[in-house]
């Protein structure tokens, strides 16, 4: 029975459709004082780059995905973490095949509207980079206008204080259950909010990105935000996104050495372009 299930899963993963991916290049070291020698990719904001994801190249093995072409792995495995993961043993994470980490730098409270720092951020950034992982950050936004979005960006930049990042600074806005804070915002308003945040991040020398699932992304005019990379959250066997993306968060129940309990696992697909 177990063998049959594995065979079925492989068939499902290998027999899927293609998705066009168009972005502004690939990830590079981000920030005003980055170490150019550590940059694994070119700057995401460089000339527009287009490619095609062929999901017959997506392989599943023990809860881990790789994107392989002619036997060469074109993807990188990552995780995204916050204080919810508790104390992280970063050397163990690195030894378990994880190459990058997206770290929560802070959030705006949906009830009070106050901005707060993720209490594990500094420890996680130092630990991840110290263990040899590439790092990016994300901010959980509940901004209701452009002014609040710029306030959030200023907070992020203050917390980073010029620190070098190898991955982007992601804007993560979601409707919180039981909260009406952002649920009534129009498509035009959400687009302006995301742009305001990302423009501030880019002006400081970092690479901005927008995170979300299909529902979250539908709140934006993505054509108006085409200059920013996308990080898609979707937990199907293959991504179901109707838009282009660079990072894919494919599970929220992953298991990684060095972390107790579940953790989000991500795939960086820019190497497949």
From TrEMBL:
<dbReference type="GO" id="GO:0016998">
    <property type="term" value="P:cell wall macromolecule catabolic process"/>
</dbReference>
<dbReference type="GO" id="GO:0016052">
    <property type="term" value="P:carbohydrate catabolic process"/>
</dbReference>
<dbReference type="InterPro" id="IPR002053">
    <property type="entry name" value="Glyco_hydro_25"/>
</dbReference>
<comment type="similarity">
    <text>Belongs to the glycosyl hydrolase 25 family.</text>
</comment>
<keyword id="KW-0378">Hydrolase</keyword>
<dbReference type="InterPro" id="IPR017853">
    <property type="entry name" value="GH"/>
</dbReference>
<dbReference type="GO" id="GO:0003796">
    <property type="term" value="F:lysozyme activity"/>
</dbReference>
<protein>
    <submittedName>
        <fullName>Glycosyl hydrolase family 25</fullName>
    </submittedName>
</protein>
<dbReference type="Pfam" id="PF01183">
    <property type="entry name" value="Glyco_hydro_25"/>
</dbReference>
<dbReference type="GO" id="GO:0009253">
    <property type="term" value="P:peptidoglycan catabolic process"/>
</dbReference>
